[in-house]
Amino acid sequence: GGTGGDPPSIQPSRCTHVRGSTRCTCPAGFTISGRDNNLCTDMDECRVFPPGRLCVHGCTNSPGSFRCFCPAGYHLAADGSSCTDVDECEHGSHTCGAEHLCVNTFGGFQCVTVGCPNRRNATYIRTTPTRCERNPCLQGDQSCLQAPNSISFQFLSVVSNVSTPRVLFRVSAARVLGDTLRFALVGGRSHGCFSLQRSGRQTGTLLLVVPVRGPSTLEAEVEMSELEGPALLGRYVTKVTLFVSAFDF
């Protein structure tokens, strides 16, 4: 039976008698039952319909109806069946400390730390929350000049099994001093999941090329090099971290 304001799971049908015959009907969400069609039994829509048909995530049956629900990190959308991601970083409901950067993901968030590297041949200073720039090199210090001029950090999020190929990120030069720009994937633990394509003279595009089931974290490192003939004028590295959600919505 129902609780609170819900109707009972089994209730009498509504019957009309016309010219010696009886016709019984049930309200929406119930099916006719009983020996003389005199009962209405709740239809469990959550079992009758295949998963995903009524609700994007979860379905709870109720007498005469059903209710959809979403996992933690989402709220039920206005349509009553879809789930909308909650941006914990924007709403301040995350638990990241002051030394961390909050990155919203589908169904959650990540607390990340951006640290500038300390290399033997070069030192770096953080100029924005996600960018480190090389301190000036001593004159003639070729080892320092070969180190990246800047190291940037990009944190991205996609749903599980997202359709591919999918553009994730574009890196470009605001101004070009040399005669050649080169773009390359130079590192990362997930090299086979990504592709880097040239899109115009000054832009390289990072794509996800294979669907990835979450939860998972992928990493890629994109390098843009500026040259004048064979001489290297500068190297600019972007470290990309891609958070793949456990959910496909």
From TrEMBL:
Gene3D superfamilies reported for this sequence: Laminin
Molecular-function GO terms, alphabetical: calcium ion binding
Keyword Electron transport listed: no
Regions annotated as coiled coil: none
Keywords: Disulfide bond, EGF-like domain, Extracellular matrix, Repeat, Secreted
Stored InterPro entries: cEGF, ECM_structural_protein, EGF, EGF-like_Ca-bd_dom, EGF-type_Asp/Asn_hydroxyl_site, EGF_Ca-bd_CS, Fibulin_C
Domain EGF-like: 68-83
Locations listed in the record: Secreted, Extracellular space, Extracellular matrix
PROSITE patterns: ASX_HYDROXYL (PS00010), EGF_2 (PS01186), EGF_CA (PS01187)
Signal peptide region: none
Protein family: Belongs to the fibulin family.
PANTHER family associated with the record: EGF-LIKE DOMAIN-CONTAINING PROTEIN (PTHR24034), FIBULIN-7-LIKE (PTHR24034:SF146)
Designated name of the protein: EGF-like domain-containing protein
